[in-house]
Amino acid sequence: MLQISHLYKNYGKFQAVRDLNLHVPKGDLFGFVGPNGAGKTTTIRMVCGLMPPTEGTITIHGVDALLHPKEIKKQIGYVPDFFGVYDNLKVSEYMDFYGSMYRMTSREIAAVSNDLLELVNLSDKKEVYVDTLSRGMKQRLCVARALIHNPSLLVLDEPNSGLDPRARVEMKELLQNLRSMGKTIVISSHILSELAEMCNSIGIMDHGKLVEAGNIEDVMEHVFGGNRIVVSVHGEMEPAVRMLKEHPQIRVESVGEKEIHISHAMKEEEIAQLIAQMIQNGIIVTGFYKEEGNLESLFMQLTGGQEDEN
Ligand SMILES: Nc1ncnc2c1ncn2[C@@H]1O[C@H](COP(=O)(O)OP(=O)(O)OP(=O)(O)O)[C@@H](O)[C@H]1O
After folding, report:
1. Which of 55, 120, 254, 268 is 20 to 30 A from 48, comparing alpha carbons?
2. Phi and psi at residue 237, to the nearest 5°
3. pLDDT 10s digits, 226-247
4. 306: in domain
5. Whose CA is nearest to atom 1 of ligand 1?
6. Residues near ligand 1 with C-beta < 6 Å?
7. A GO molecular function for this record (predicted)?
8. Is the ipTM of this complex over 0.85?
9. Domain that holds residue 71
């Protein structure tokens, strides 16, 4: 659906995006993660045709975005990371305004506007002035207006920034709903836990480069090698730690009050043998499970710990 190949963006001598290659399949909810200044907004703006790349190609449904910008704009709904000032504009007028920008007739706008406002849960706000809406409502209205021309790809730049927890949950539900309706969605954020909850695939950017991309589980599996285990022990920790440290295929990563985190290069049956040996040695093993890892630690690992939550 979205294909980015060898994409570069230079601001003068500064390279904001460097050799970015990415494929987002149809129906994906893809999250762009990266610390401030990683190049997410720059990439998104190029995808949406708001800024030309220095080099590289972007295609949507196989259509070259640089060669056919008008056609591409019909395919994309863009939600920027800022909300303009709309004095004296009611919600329904706001939708009319954006519909007319896509040269839709009043009848066409009316036909979709009501449905979209219902979708974003703003049906009862049609006659309310936009500037009096809460931030969460404004963000949802922004999504509704981005969908007015029925684009297949929705691109959102930091849609959750400044939202309270409840508004974030509403935004997440809305995006998941849109995905189930067949939209492809690209969302940028540096709030990693949220992306982990809602996206099925992610790309991690750092200093203009995509350092990792793919299905969330695969990305984490790749980084951790899927070989981290948490061993929970009741009673004395020392014998368990010593035994694990002496094991040639185990590296003890950290020791907590009741848990030992290890990484290993063992096969299934060797893991089973290890548990049996620990128990034979009188160690009371109360838990032995694969560490799932989380997006935060992955992010820190890949970007050298420059996370900046807002
Ligand atoms: N118009 C510009 N001229 C010069 N440098 C720019 C311009 N726009 C962005 N940059 C620089 O390019 C880099 C990437 O910026 P960008 O806004 O794409 O990052 P980002 O990942 O979206 O960060 P944030 O999370 O802070 O929005 C930053 O170092 C930024 O200072």
Report:
1. 120
2. -85, -35
3. 678 899 999 999 999 999 999 9
4. no
5. 11
6. 11, 14, 16, 34, 36-42, 190
7. ATP hydrolysis activity
8. yes
9. 2-214
